[in-house]
Amino acid sequence: MFGIGFRMWQRLAIRKGFAGLAGFFIVTLLPIPLAHSQVWSGILDPSRATDWTKAGIPGGIPNRTTVCNAVSPSGKTNDDDMKAINNAIASCPEGQVVNLGSGIFTITNGITFGTKDNVTVRGAGPDKTTLKFTGPGRHECGGGGSICLGGIKSTPANPASYVGSHSWTGTNGIAGTYTRGATVLNLDSVSGLRVGQIIILDQRNDDIGMLPSPNGATEKGCATAPCTVTITTSIPHEYSVGQTVGVGGKNLARDYVGYFKITAVPSPTTFQYTLNTANIANSGDGYSTVDTNGVMISGNRHITIAENLNVGRACPDAMNPVTCKTGEISWRSQTEVKVVTAIDAASKRITISSGLHYSNWRTSHAPGVYWLASTSGSENNLNGNYAIRDGIENLTVDYTINGGSDNNSGIALRRAYQCWVKNVRSISGDRNHVWVRDGSMQNEILDSYFVGQKGSGSQSYGVEIHGATADNLVQNNICEHIVVCIMMGGSVGSVIAYNYAVDDGSYVTALMMPMMNANHDVDAFNLFEGNDSPSINNDNVHGTGNLVTFFRNRLRGQSVPIKRNGLIGATVGAYNRGVNFVGNVMGTTGAQKDYQQIGKYTSGYIWSLDKGSENGTGVQDDPLTHQSLLRWGNYDVVTGAVRWCGNSSSPGWSTICNSTSEIPTTGITFINGNPVPLSTMLPASFYLPEQPSFWPTPWGTPPWPAVGPDVKGGTASDGAGGHAYGIPAQLCYMNTQIDPSYQQTFTVRGASWSSQEITLNIGTHTIGRYDTVMVSGAAPSPHEKYQVIDRTPTTISYALPVNPGVDISGWTVTYPNILLFNAANCYPAAYGGSAPPARLSLSVR
């Protein structure tokens, strides 16, 4: 079997089925501890990290050279171009390429890969080939995906539908054990499963649904206070007298919310507490939560999260999964996506890849497995119509006039396995530019440029990873004028690395957005490495998070254009536990004046920790967030030094560290205590074995690594303390020329200044509020970016602290300032060109 190569065999099994292999079983050794051969060993305890080398496509993106169809733009504005591309994809044999020629293709609806696997769509380069979308996207990917690399071929009646589900009873042949790193799972049945199938593991959340009984979730409170409230849970609970229970409604804004001390447990499905407030309103769907005091997966609105949780299966469920008990009310938001590599039908065991990430799988929470399907599909596609090893590369997608909405996506990877987006310039996205979601695994988003947004408010994303996803790689991209460059929600084991985020496109005047959101739903074991971003945010809006790692990032604490509010280096909100920050460079001189705030969220701090809610939702602050937070070897501008704060043997223990440890040496539930590292030496990367191929640029090769406490003499324009050089994506952004085909130039006809705000008369324009413009010839800077805070049909206004005077001769305003981007020009060694000289020479655009 292994003679043909495991990867080739796996690919054939996934595509063709290999039904005859259903009973074949590969003998698998017990899992090797994760500390083995991991470069983070000795820094992070194995319970806090995972093997991030598994992220992305094994062996990298395939370089296909055989062209099946070549398509040139028609020059028409009807649907001819769209039909020609879709037909070319549909007729392309596997392993081949649809080549798109130079010019502008008009796409009236959308591009779809349909049922086609193993096909590449390749343009002549994003500076040569443009897909111009004039209408909203198609719906194969569940929503308006302008380009669909996805497993759904039609919109099902129930978007969460799946074809099969089993209970998961243990690992390695031992019932009731769920060993971290294990690759052999015991099931109650293996019926319906095949080698090569993609499955999703899940279990019940740490919330318990409450029954809508007169004395349960719809309890109206007391006619006169105090009184005893009895809550009836839908399944047996494990609560005890004296514990604090949070009781909240799932859907209603403030109903039935509070934290109470349990006074009695009359039965396994009831508990009581004393209520001191009369006439509480009905709650609708109610959930109760008792803290695990460790890893916690909870979606209890207003108790552990601010809004609704909307990922994962639920009980009751229209598909009636076997893991739901009769009458059960629950959510199942903890997920891991895996591939079945072997099946032992006799023993009811399957082998999976990769091994288990989470350590909190347990029988009491009814672990299960399920696999996805759509309402149409082929028997040969075992993965519920997954898109497999499809790719789009070397082109521009322009959504400026597509009439999109907040639910539209640009390039949608839904139920996608080992697919990719590479060297794509994406302009004016709707909700997002790329959406990876719903069972997607080992996909790659590389070397691309995402600019502009149409999504309303904060729902404006570059790359959004949402739903049950795992082991994806988002690397070496540029985000410009997007509220959130990377939005994570439901991902496990993914890597977000070496991305440059600039101009946050804030929808609130003078408020800095972090541009990287590490936990928006339920995330764990993701790695953020080497990114350059205004900030990083671990929130508790849609779900709790655990065990995310940040390594060698430049977190500036300031944006471009300059902002006045929200200037935080890193936010770790309530119920984000076991988070790791190692070797980061944080803050901007003048923007941050204090080191940390606990239970608060105000501007001007390196760290904002433990805060439960900023908007009065009732979520309590969580001291265990900062108590379980690991910080080692980070430099910040307030301290003015690198903090190795472990114990009395650490450098600067009494001075820099104030004799206070930032290593959580005491364990909490499901997370071990972390020994103080014995060395201040850090590896270059937590997932790359060597300097990556995209590292050399025409403007020089940054040191490897480019950011960290051990980096000296750094020349990055946004650096701090000499600990940062410009990463390749930043160098590409700063040295790539503006695309003149998009840029408009306005001559300033008049100007007025008042209250630190300037108004320019530029004539008729379409520039919107919160757009970013470049102003040339104006004081105090001859060439500066500003965010528009007000506008009329002929004027724009922006913040300017200093009165520039009345001389406006030579002033011009340019908009939009979209790069003439092509990754082949920025990272030639990664695209078959010769590597430039090793010396770094930074040229500021």
Describe the 3D structure.
By secondary structure, the chain is mostly beta strands. Helices cover 5% and strands 33% of the residues. The protein is built from 5 helices and 60 strands. The strands form 10 sheets. It has a 17-stranded parallel β-sheet that branches. An 11-stranded parallel β-sheet has the order 4-7-26-29-32-35-38-41-45-50-49. The longest helix has 11 residues, at 6-16.
Strand content: 25-35%
Rounded to the nearest angstrom, the distance between the terminal CA atoms is 55 Å
Helix proportion? under 10%
The number of distinct β-strands equals 60
Regions with little confidence, pLDDT below 50 for 5+ residues: 1-35, 153-160, 215-220, 279-284, 374-383, 838-845
Biggest pleated-sheet summary: 17 strands, parallel
Give the radius of gyration.
27 Å
Question: Which structural category fits the helices and strands?
Answer: mainly beta
Describe the global form: globular
Overall average pLDDT: 87
Number of helices: 5
Can you describe this structure in just a few lines?
The protein has five helices and 60 strands.
Structural key phrases:
845 residues; mainly beta; 17-stranded parallel sheet; eleven-stranded parallel sheet; 5 helices; disordered C terminus
SSE diagram, text form:
Blueprint: H1 6-16, E1 67-71, H2 80-90, E2 96-100, E3 103-107, E4 111-112, E5 119-122, E6 129-133, E7 145-148, E8 162-171, E9 174-175, E10 184-187, E11 198-203, E12 207-210, E13 227-232, E14 244-249, E15 258-261, E16 264-267, E17 270-275, E18 286-290, E19 313-315, E20 330-332, E21 334-344, E22 349-353, E23 368-372, E24 387-388, E25 391-398, E26 409-414, E27 416-417, E28 420-429, E29 432-437, E30 444-446, E31 449-453, E32 461-470, E33 473-475, E34 478-480, E35 484-492, E36 495-497, E37 500-502, E38 515-519, E39 527-529, E40 532-533, E41 536-538, E42 545-546, E43 549-551, E44 554-555, E45 568-572, E46 576-577, E47 580-582, E48 585-586, E49 594-598, E50 605-609, H3 623-627, E51 630-632, E52 634-636, E53 641-643, H4 728-735, E54 744-747, E55 750-754, E56 757-761, E57 772-776, E58 783-791, E59 795-799, E60 812-815, H5 823-826
Parallel strand pairs: 1-2, 2-5, 3-6, 4-7, 5-25, 6-25, 7-26, 24-27, 25-28, 26-29, 28-30, 28-31, 29-32, 30-33, 31-34, 32-35, 33-36, 34-37, 35-38, 36-39, 38-41, 39-43, 40-44, 41-45, 42-46, 43-47, 44-48, 45-50, 47-51, 48-52, 49-50
Antiparallel strand pairs: 8-9, 8-10, 8-23, 10-22, 11-21, 11-23, 12-18, 13-17, 14-15, 14-18, 16-17, 19-20, 21-22, 52-53, 54-60, 55-56, 56-59, 57-58, 57-60, 58-59
